[in-house]
Amino acid sequence: MSTPPSYFEEMYRGAADPWHLAERWYERRKYDLTLAALPRPRYRRAFEPACSVGELTVRLAGRCDALLACDRVRSAVGTAARRTEDLPHVEVRHLTLPAQWPAGTFDLVVLSELLYYFDRAELDLVLKHAVDALEPGGTLVTVHWNHPVAEHLYAGDELAGVLGAVPELALASDHREPDFVLQTYGRRADDGTPPPSPAAAEGLV
Predict the structure, then answer these.
(1) Each residue of 153-175: b (16+ CB within 10 Å) or e?
(2) pLDDT exceeding 90 applies to what percent of the chain?
(3) How far apart are CA 154 and CA 123, in angstroms?
């Protein structure tokens, strides 16, 4: 079964930032690597579910014309909204995935520290929503902790295997460390063609 909502509610009941995302060098470095892995300099419309207190949200905002972030915990949504209130192109909503996937399409979807909370049925549904909402040529980014945790149903390496089997996605980059797995995928065109690499997009190859 997917991790129950009570787990997240209890985590935030005890602390505004229960995973210390704003404090830890580990987290700041991971966010910097996530931004560096994006194959495009800028995106038209991005979606970041499970945004928590908005640490990654603020960084993503600098690369996006419009950014929709969401979380299932209202207190986290409030914190993220306050952190981005001076960024008019950022919207933060209270949504629970997969049931409340937003309307419209995106050229960037960021699934960071999220997928290991879903059982296989819900994981497959989240990925279906992500693929269906991702424009051809768009970017899907996934980042996941790679150590055992009682509430995690998968480790980062296991999720990489699941993502690699999605036919609409083409692996663009694969960064693995003992602690986490960071991957980017491109949404294939209707004829199956993957998006160009950053070098190819600039005519270098």
Answers:
(1) bbbbebbbeebeebebbbebbee
(2) 88
(3) 10
Give the model confidence (pLDDT) of 164-202 as tens digits: 999 999 999 999 999 999 999 999 999 999 999 999 999
Q: Which residues pair with 43 in a beta bridge?
A: 64
List Cα–Cα distances, 188 to 55, 62, 115, 127, 144, in angstroms: 30, 26, 21, 15, 23
| pLDDT (tens digit per residue) in 132-141 | 999 999 999 9
Question: Cβ(70)–Cβ(51) under 8 Å?
Answer: yes
Query: What pTM was computed for the model?
Result: 0.94
Rounded CA-CA distance 154/131 in Å is: 20
- DSSP code for 40: S
From the DSSP assignment, how many helices (H) and strands (E) are in the chain?
7, 7
**Which residue has 């909402």 as its token pair?**
133
Helix axes 156-164, 120-133, angle to 10 degrees: 50
54 is written with which tokens?
């908005």
